[in-house]
Design a protein that fits this description.
The protein is built from ten helices and 16 strands. With 325 residues, the protein is of the alpha/beta class.
Length: 325
């Protein structure tokens, strides 16, 4: 009797990982075992993965939402379903999908393959490519959940959007316009033409004008910058108006609520959530031509560190996307 001693080959994937916190130089391409989809999950062959400020913040900053490295970052996904886990009925192998891995602990999209809950995804609109689809999920869901789910903006309402040319901001401008709002955005003058093309009604160059001195009677303000932008934005709100802040790092929520109460306005501090309903709404806006991501640049997976370096400057317009050949 003979025994087969041929070693079993374990399928592997390529991913961008890090063993320590630090600058872009800590990112490295590694080979990891290919994940298997569990019950209710998809295994997705990643074609594109958008980057967001939370990526470089978590890459470098201790004591945030993730455990210590090693880990693979990335939450945005656009790709093709390769396998479905037990109980999945919404998707089949070969379907093109896009979505956001559950934030914060579902990270891992900077890889050739990733697993995630089936109900975090929607079918990719046929009219866009994977780069465009990969740029959308986290930023578009953030804007949707802030403006629609949280603020329930209505036609004719005045909406102030800070960092209007940023990843979240430029999508928020389009979502607010799709809801019939009058949109006021803050951005440097060089970005005003793009924002007008996306539908902004009024633009303020933050480098030369203090928005808190010139903007009034706002129904909803969206703050993606943090610092003193939240408290100062309250001065622009009408009585009973709402400030939604998505910049939670270093935020004293109790102090912000106390200031809002003194001014007779409201405030909500929001963290994005994986959401199939939101992704389907975003897909519908894309399919109708009312929402698109502005792509600031694309980088192959192996050059993820270069993309992080550029993104961390805070000077990009729209989204950076990692492509996975």
């Amino acid at each position: 009797m003979t025994t087969d001693t041929t070693p079993t080959t374990v399928p592997t994937i390529r991913a961008i990982s890090q063993d320590v916190l630090g600058g872009p130089e800590v990112l490295r391409e590694v080979e990891l075992p290919r994940p298997e989809p569990g019950p209710g999950q998809l295994l997705i062959r990643v074609h594109a993965a958008g980057l967001n400020p939370t990526d470089w913040i978590h890459r470098a900053t201790p004591g945030l939402l993730l455990p210590e490295p090693p880990f693979v970052l990335g939450w945005d996904v656009s790709g093709v379903v390769e396998e479905v886990g037990q109980g999945v009925t919404l998707f089949k192998p070969g379907h093109e999908v896009f979505g956001m891995l559950p934030y914060p602990h579902g990270h891992g999209s900077l890889a050739t393959h990733v697993t995630g809950p089936a109900r975090a995804f929607a079918h990719k609109p046929a009219g866009i490519d994977h780069i465009q689809a990969g740029a959308l999920p986290l930023a578009a869901l953030t804007a949707w959940q802030a403006l629609v789910d949280t603020a329930d903006i209505r036609p004719g309402q005045r909406v102030l959007i800070h960092a209007a040319a940023g990843g979240v901001g430029h999508l928020a401008v389009q979502i607010a316009k799709a809801r019939g709002a009058y949109v006021i955005g803050t951005a440097s003058a060089a970005k005003h033409d793009l924002l007008r093309a996306l539908g902004a009604d009024e633009l303020i160059d933050y480098r030369t004008v203090d928005f808190a001195e010139v903007v009034r009677d706002v129904d909803v303000a969206l703050d993606a910058l943090g610092g003193d932008h939240g408290p100062r934005s309250m001065a622009t709100l009408r009585p009973g108006g709402l400030l939604v802040t998505i910049k939670l790092q270093g935020l004293d929520v109790r102090e912000l609520h106390a200031e809002a109460a003194r001014r007779g306005v409201r405030v909500e501090a929001m963290m994005v959530e994986a959401d199939r309903t939101g992704m389907k709404a975003i897909a519908d806006l894309v399919a109708s031509g009312r929402l698109r991501a502005h792509i600031a640049g694309t980088f192959p997976l192996a050059d993820a560190a270069k993309a992080h370096e550029l993104g961390a400057t805070g000077r990009t317009t729209g989204k950076l996307v990692i492509t996975v050949p």
